[in-house]
Specification:
Blueprint: H1 6-13, E1 36-40, E2 43-47, E3 64-65, H2 76-85, E4 93-98, H3 105-114, E5 120-125, H4 129-143, H5 152-164, E6 169-174, H6 179-189, E7 194-199, E8 210-213, H7 219-230, H8 241-247, H9 252-265, H10 269-278, H11 280-284, H12 297-307, H13 313-321, E9 329-330, H14 340-352, E10 357-358, E11 363-365, H15 368-374, H16 386-403, H17 414-429, H18 438-454, H19 459-473, H20 478-493, H21 497-515, H22 520-535, H23 539-557, H24 562-577, H25 581-599, H26 604-619, H27 623-640, H28 646-661, H29 665-683, H30 688-703, H31 707-725, H32 730-745, H33 749-766, H34 772-784
Parallel strand pairs: 3-5, 4-7, 4-8, 5-6, 6-7
Antiparallel strand pairs: 1-2, 9-11, 10-11
Helix pairs in contact: 4-5, 7-8, 7-9, 8-10, 13-14, 13-16, 16-17, 16-18, 17-18, 18-19, 19-20, 20-21, 20-22, 21-22, 22-23, 22-24, 23-24, 24-25, 24-26, 25-26, 26-27, 26-28, 27-28, 28-29, 28-30, 29-30, 30-31, 30-32, 31-32, 32-33, 32-34, 33-34
């Protein structure tokens, strides 16, 4: 720009209405009705006389506004909040609406401002200081068109002077990046009008404005917005609109873009959803043909990340957070990522721009679409380079794996497990198993163990963890052997003994070879195999294996080690299954006493021992000892584990069955009915424990003489056990015997006799000689078979 002589600047300074401006040559004397030339960058402009007078007071008499109504849905509470914030007609009111880019801040501001009655309502795109100046200069021209030829800085000055001298105006400063960019303007117009600011930045407003955080659309409003845009050109297929809006996180800009693309291309919402899943990078950058290419999700958020890129950790944090569930991400997952001051600075940047929301309870929230974008590689975007995203995924797995407590059975650790489960599910759901690492497998293994203790076994998670460990660590690594043992345990919990037994046999052999006979993990394998043999009815192999394992654990671990106490408990259970109730009762009593001394009254293992001792008393016919022990154990389990924990429900089932054995059917039947309902809800229809509960309820109906309910329930239980557990599972054999007994009680010997006969043959083939169930089935058959 050409610099002008000093005396020209001094002459201009004496001219009214142009104080302090530079860059003009003004003729001396009276300027009224004169025509003056202003030379700027060697260009000459001829201005009318009113260009040199202040903007008239009556300039806004007819109203001046560049705000027009836009398509808008919902936000009723937010509009009310804005109205309340601007209700005071005294001092200048500045209100800042902040939120994630694309959340709908501008639309809210325009919608609210379009319904106002101020004489001047002016919207300025204030994303840069130059944008603020240009927008204010535009207001000057709208108030006084004759100013058009003046330099922009003079137009700015005229408008500011007018705003500072008048009331009853409203400025919308849209998309402010930094409060400092608008502070000079606010300082000069204070006390005269209203200013509504929108910004992605949530911080820095305490000196200038009250704030309102804008969240995503209400789900119903998001669907409404989508369908309005989609149907703009006529009736369209809206099936799947709700699912698509949910996938887009109800973010206004994303919903608007998707609806416009569907409207213009004829794509259905479900087809768009499928395309988004298959090609997310392209869809995040896409816009409708009539849309603005700069207003895509990818472009909007890239601008935000560009602004905070001077803190490199911010990008790493966001890419790592992208792999977790969007809500309630524990902050302490990241304690080891960086020094506290560095971590605090990085997260403060992300929170300031609403990329992360601080829930003020030790957890963070990230919008699901921000996450989807941050984990979708794009070589053209420096914030989404493929290697950085892969590293973030692996870091997310490592942080999760290290966050799980070791003991999933300790109730004190349950809140932590429950907090981490959704994030493990999200991590493993966002990528294919071939990207799993050893840390992914550890997180899966820990979460699956907890789930199995709380409800149905997580077979797929155990299988995925094992597959990953074999690929990453090898067949013989101790962690791989742990995974194989855990998968076998899940098969056992699901009643699939045909899968559990060979897997446990192989794992025991491998642990003996790799770790040695006396390694604690080897002893765990031997214990688990013995317990599975016992459940399968193979007491000939189960009993000696339990006996050997108890001896080895006493020698290797000591009398009082918790694993030793587990072995003693399991050996007692095997004695009970074999019908040796004297040994079973004595060993259960010993184990309960030791667990109280070593673990405490409320430890889950102690509670299991008390339940098992009560069961041994019941089998021995001593209900006087069994019932109060069952009652106390149920009360303790409700207090320690909760009313609906699977172990609590099993205890309730056992107490109800003891009432039945005592002939107290008025107590037994409603308790069994309630327990079955709860087990169906907690564990599912087909869980072995649910099937046992259904069997017990049918038995209670039979004992009460209600065969109309007992027989169909026995029939259903047998069908389900055949389907879930197989024809030869001991529980299936018990169900068949119970159904035959119900037929016998109903006088239907034509069905009872052949069923007893088949069951005796199967029991003798499947179970070990001397198994108590064989004797029970044989006695039933002998009772009903025709005499020769």
């Amino acid at each position: 720009m050409t610099r002008h002589p000093k005396d020209a600047q001094e002459q201009l300074a004496e001219s009214p209405g142009l104080h302090g401006a530079s860059g003009a040559i003004v003729a001396g004397g009276d300027v009224i009705d004169s025509v003056t030339q202003i030379v700027e960058a060697q260009q000459a402009f001829v201005l009318p006389p009113d260009a040199y007078a202040p903007i008239p007071d009556e300039a806004a008499a007819q109203g001046v506004s560049n705000i027009r109504p836009v398509m808008f849905v919902g936000r009723v509470e937010e509009l009310r909040a804005l109205e309340a914030a601007f209700a005071d007609s005294g001092e200048v009111v500045v209100h800042a609406v902040h939120g994630l880019g694309g959340v709908g801040k501008s639309a809210l501001a325009v919608r609210w401002a379009s319904g106002r009655h101020e004489a001047v309502r002016w919207r300025i795109i204030a994303d840069t200081p130059a944008g603020v100046d240009a927008g204010v200069a535009g207001l000057a021209r709208a108030l006084q068109p004759g100013l058009t030829g003046l330099p922009a800085e003079l137009q700015f000055e005229r408008a500011v002077q007018w705003l500072a001298g008048h009331r009853g105006w409203l400025l919308v400063l849209d998309n402010v990046e930094d409060p400092d960019h608008i502070r000079p303007l606010l300082d000069r117009v204070a006390g005269h009008g209203r200013v509504l600011v929108t910004s992605r930045c949530a911080t820095g407003w305490h000196q200038d404005a009250t704030t309102l955080r804008l969240d995503v659309l209400d789900p119903a409003d998001a669907v409404h917005l989508f369908t309005r845009i989609l149907a703009h050109r006529g009736t369209r297929d809206t099936d799947g609109a709700d699912a698509l809006c949910t996938e887009l996180g109800d973010l206004a800009l994303a919903v608007e873009q998707a609806a416009a693309c569907c409207a213009e291309s004829g794509t259905s919402p479900r087809a768009y959803l499928d395309t988004l899943a298959r090609w997310p990078a392209k869809m995040f950058a896409a816009t409708a043909a009539s849309g603005k290419s700069a207003r895509t999700i990818a472009r909007v958020w890239r601008l935000t990340l560009d602004r905070i890129a001077d803190t490199p950790l911010t990008g790493d944090l966001l890419r790592t957070l992208a792999w977790y569930a969007p809500d309630r991400i524990p902050r302490d997952l990241f304690d080891s990522v960086a020094d506290p001051p560095e971590l605090a600075a990085a997260i403060a940047q992300l929170i300031a721009y609403s990329m992360v929301i601080d829930n003020h309870d030790g957890t963070w929230t990230v919008h699901r679409l921000v996450q989807a974008l941050a984990r979708t590689p794009d070589p053209r975007d420096p914030h989404r380079l493929p290697d950085d995203i892969n590293n973030a995924r692996d870091r997310a797995a490592a942080l999760l794996a290290g966050a799980y407590p070791a003991d999933s059975e300790d109730p004190a650790n349950w809140p932590r497990y429950q907090a981490l489960l959704p994030h493990t599910d999200a991590l493993t759901g966002h990528h294919t198993p071939d990207h799993d690492t050893a840390h992914t497998a550890q997180a899966l293994d820990r979460s699956a163990n907890f789930r199995q203790e709380q409800g149905p076994p997580a077979l797929q998670d155990f299988q995925r963890a094992l597959t990953t460990r074999i690929r990453v660590l090898g067949e013989d690594h101790p962690d791989t052997l742990n995974s194989r043992n855990n998968l076998a345990g899940a098969y056992y919990a699901a009643g699939d003994l045909d899968s559990a037994v060979p897997l446990l046999q192989r794992t025991l052999e491998d642990r003996v070879r790799v770790l040695g006979e006396d390694h604690p993990d080897t002893l765990i394998s031997r214990n688990d195999l013995a317990a599975t043999y016992e459940t399968a009815g193979d007491l000939e192999r189960a009993l000696p294996l339990h006996q050997r394992n108890l001896e080895d654990r006493i020698r290797v671990l000591g009398e009082d080690h918790p694993d030793t106490l587990i072995s003693r408990n399991n050996l007692a259970a095997a004695y009970k299954a074999a019908g040796d109730l004297g040994l079973a009762v004595a060993l259960h009593q010993h184990t309960l006493e030791d667990r109280i001394r070593v673990l405490g009254e409320d430890h889950p293992d102690t509670l299991a021992s008390r339940n098992n001792l009560a069961g041994a008393y019941r089998s021995a016919g001593d209900l006087g000892l069994a019932l109060p022990l069952y009652q106390r154990n149920l009360e303790d389990l409700i207090r320690v584990l909760g009313e609906f924990h699977p172990t609590t429900l099993i205890s309730r089932n056992n107490l109800a069955s003891a009432y039945r054995s005592a002939g107290d059917l008025d107590s037994a039947v409603p308790l069994l009915q309630r327990t079955l309902e709860d087990l169906v809800r907690v564990l599912g229809e087909d869980h072995p424990t649910t099937l046992a509960s259904r069997n017990n309820l049918a038995g209670a109906y039979e004992a009460a003489g209600d065969l109309e309910r007992a027989v169909p329930l026995f029939q259903r239980t047998l069908e389900d056990r055949v389907r879930v557990l197989g024809e030869d599972h001991p529980d299936t054999l018990a169900s068949r015997n119970n159904l035959a007994g119900a037929y016998e009680a109903a006088g239907d010997l034509e069905r009872a006799v052949p069923l007893f006969q088949r069951n005796l043959e199967d029991s003798e083939r499947v179970l070990s000689p001397g198994h108590p169930l064989i004797a029970e089935v044989r006695a039933s058959y002998e009772r009903v078979r025709p005499s020769s």
